[in-house]
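Model it.
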Amino acid sequence: MGIWDWFTASNEVYFSPMWKKQIGYEPHELEPKFSTWIDHLHPEERAVRLKDVEDYMANPVGKFILEFRFRHKNESYIWIHSRAETILDEKGKVVRLYGTHLDITKLKMNEDSLMEKNRTLQKINSELDNFVYRVSHDIRAPLSSCFGILNLMEKQNLVNEGNEQYIKLLKDVLLKQETVIKSILDYSRNSRSDLILEEIPLKEMIFATFKDLKFMNDTRGVVELFVDIPEDFSFVCDKNRVQFILNNLLSNGIKYADLTKDKPKIEISASSGDDAIAITFRDNGIGIHTDILPHIFEMFYRGNIESSGSGLGLYIVKETVEKLGGTIQVASEFKHFTSFTITLPQRNDF
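Modeled.
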C-alpha cells in the first residue's frame, strides 16, 4: 500500500517508496509535486478526477475516496483505490490531505470478468427462454393436431375393436409428451420469473384446485378432501407458485390413491407462527417404497416404468418451494400413507 501526503498551500506531496513502486519507479524518481499525480491520471478521466478533488476541497466532509486508472512507468495503466483524511485550518480550509494508494487492478479485472460473464449468462438465459417457449410451441402444435385427428376418428366411428387399443396407446403417449413439455415450461418459469407477492386465500385455492382435479385418472371422483384450515387463514406469497404446488401435490394424491380402500382421502392442514407457516398434505394412498423415498425430488426420477408422469413434478415443486425461501419434507409408509409438509417464511415485505 502506497502512502501520500499533500500540503495544499505549496502543492508539495510526499510519495512513499511503495507508492512509487506500484507504478514502476524507484524511490529517488518522480518529483514530489501534485502535478506528478495529475500527469499519471488516465487522459480520459483526468478532468473528472480533478473535478472530484475540487469539489471535495470546497466541501471537505467525511473521507475522500477515489478509484481511477493510473499510468505505470511501462505506459500501461493500473487501477488505484485511494482513501484520504484531511487537516483543516481554523477557517475550515484544507491545508493537508493525506492517504493511501491501493493497487486494485486484479480486483477490477475480476470484476470486469464477472460482469462480462454475467452479461453472457443473461444473454444465454434469454436465448434459453426463447428456445424453450419456441420449441414447446412447435412441439405442442403437432401434438394438438394428433389429438384432433384421433378425436375425429372416434367421432366418425373409424375406431373399432381391432384398433381401439392402438388409439388408446397413441393418446397415452401423446399425453405423456404433453406432460413433459408442460413440466419443462413450469421449470423455466419458476427459475426465471421474479416473485410477485400478494395475499393468498389458501383454503379457497385448495377447494378450487381439487374441484378441477377430482375426476382425473379415472378415479371417478371417489377421493375425498378434508381441509383443516380456518376460513380467514392467509399469508403473503407468490400466488402462481403456490398454485403450482397445490396442483402437483393434490394431483399426486388423486393419481396415487388406493381405490381398494373404503375411503380414499386427502387431508390438508395449515398452521401459522411468527416466522413461518406450515402446510401439510396427507393421503391414505398407495404410499412410497422406502428405497424410492430418498429419490422422489430428483430430476426425471420415476419410481416405476409404468408411471405416467414426467419425473419432473416433485423436482419442480421442491425448486419452487426453495425459490419461495421454504423447505419441503416427505414421509411415507408403503400401502398406508404419504405426507408432504411445506414450510414457508412469513413475509413482511408486502
